[in-house]
Amino acid sequence: MTTTDLGLPSSLRLERDGDIAVLTISREHKRNALDDATIEGLGGFFRRPPTWARVVVLTPDGDHFSAGLDLAELGEHDAVGGFHHSRTWHDAFTQIESGAVPVISVLKGAVVGGGLELAAATHIRVAEPSAFFALPEGERGLFVGGGGSVRVPRLIGVHRMTDMMLTGRVLSATESAQFGLVHYLVEEGAGLASAFVHARRIAANSPLVNHAVLQALPRIAEASPETGLLMEALMSAVAQSGSDAKERMSAFLVGRATKVNGAEAVR
Q1: Which of 117, 156, 109, 158 is nearest to 137 (CA)?
Q2: How many whole angstroms separate alpha carbon 99 and alpha carbon 6?
Q3: Are residues 130 and 159 in the same domain?
Q4: 3-state SS assignment for residue 267
């Protein structure tokens, strides 16, 4: 694994493992709370990811993914300043969710407030048992501002987010997996290794299909059925017409490609 410098802030560290980029949030002394420099660094990185990166694994230093917004960054914002501050977070997290590469987050310890909003913008979420999830903004006189009111209800439902914000309910890793917030719940300390297993499988996919999953699938899901089916047919036609699809199908037909079997089911 080699270290790569792309002018990131000191709170973010980038390492390369083949075609997998490992981006580490490195503010362990603050439980990886997100300050403005980190948010700007995330936005810039995902706006222009390294050309060699097929997948990004987003992981923390220390025992916590992120305790959320570094409250020292709020300062004395008036309504206009607060609006623009929130929009900066929106831009950064949109670069993750709608960017060019799949992103897998490794979740442990605090996944709280803005940390949960960040995790919700990633495509695959791997959690260790120590992970806990909360939206304490209401207790602090705040409302979510990093896209949480859009992304979190899509994952767990408005009713569960309402509960979290009104009562301060903290979800365990097990509950979050049951509710659909977490894709994979693994043993303590196994989060990064699990993320790499998934990252290698994703990196082996056709780049065109990965692009379609990130860019077309969300839009199809939000479209009317008629529009969604039309978009699906168009994307399917584009994908299967590519040389990569033809080579992979040929390998499958002659028995050179692996077949799906129940032994690969994730439990």
Answers
A1: 117
A2: 17
A3: yes
A4: coil
- Give the global pTM: 0.91
34 DSSP 8-state letter: B
Q: Which tens digit of pLDDT belongs to each residue from 139-192?
A: 888 899 999 999 999 999 999 999 999 999 999 999 999 999 999 999 999 999
**What's the number of CA atoms in the CB half-sphere (13 Å) around residue 59?**
22
What is the helix, strand, coil percentage profile of the chain, to 5? 50, 15, 35
Q: What's the longest Cα–Cα distance across the chain?
A: 66
* 67 and 116 share one domain: yes
Strand arrangement, sheet containing 171-172: 110-112, 132-134, 171-172
Helix (H) or strand (E) holding 244: helix 243-253
**Ramachandran quadrant class, 8 (left: phi over 0; alpha: psi -120 to 50; beta: rest):** beta
Residues catalogued as catalytic: 117, 137
Q: How many domains does the chain have?
A: 2
142/65: higher pLDDT: 65
d(CA 130, CA 139): 23
Is there a contact between 35 and 71 (Cβ–Cβ < 8 Å)?
A: no
Q: What is the mean pLDDT of residues 5-21?
A: 93
Structural domain of 249: 207-264
Please tell me which residue, 70 or 177, carries the higher pLDDT value: 177
